[in-house]
Design goal:
0% strand; 187 residues; flat; mainly alpha
Length: 187
């Protein structure tokens, strides 16, 4: 009984006396604005988001599914859903938005492309090195490469102009040819 009271007293004292005296100050962002990318913090934050987006591709089971299923290493099983059956490329189904998780790469890439465009377009005014802007150029080209390899031609204009940071969502888009995506963005 005495040992329990002693341990309880020590635990309470540790919590009270050893607690953190500083409070973490955060400025969470759900959206980026052009002004955000005109600061060094904004450019680094945008680049950090681009690196973090890699997890959406390579840490997601659907991305793994698109790369692995249909090869000579694996195929769909009897308990798999249509996502695996369609991606098997065995002719059992067609890849559409309703039969597969094509949105897993589509949404992640276009979000990342827009962030990269913001860093490229506004980052020069932040006084950061050209190497950081080059990283954003790489990520934008990389994301377009993933999209073209998966879907063929994709939009280069997200609503504010070709390869511009989009601040106004648009319900319409123009699907550019594969050649124009390669020449205007990837190369």
């Amino acid at each position: 009984m005495l040992i329990n009271k002693t341990l309880l007293g020590m635990a309470v004292a540790t919590m009270i006396l050893g607690g953190c005296s500083k409070v973490l100050q955060e400025q969470p962002r759900s959206t980026y604005t052009p002004g955000f990318f005109t600061t060094q913090t904004g450019v680094v934050g945008g680049l950090t988001e681009m690196y973090a987006s890699l997890r959406q591709f390579y840490g997601d089971g659907y991305w793994y599914n698109t790369l692995e299923v249909g090869t000579d290493e694996s195929t769909y099983g009897s308990s798999d859903d249509a996502n695996f059956l369609v991606m098997d490329m065995s002719g059992q189904g067609a890849i559409t938005s309703s039969t597969s998780r094509s949105d897993a790469i589509w949404n992640a890439c276009f979000t990342n492309i827009n962030t990269a465009s913001g860093v490229i377009q506004y980052g020069a005014g932040a006084g950061v090195s050209a190497a950081l802007t080059s990283e954003a150029n790489f990520f934008r080209a990389f994301d377009y490469f993933l999209l073209v390899q998966t879907f063929g031609g994709v939009p280069l204009d997200l609503g504010s102009g070709i390869l511009k940071f989009n601040t106004t969502p648009s319900p319409s888009s123009v699907r550019n040819s594969v050649q124009s995506v390669y020449t205007q963005c990837i190369f």
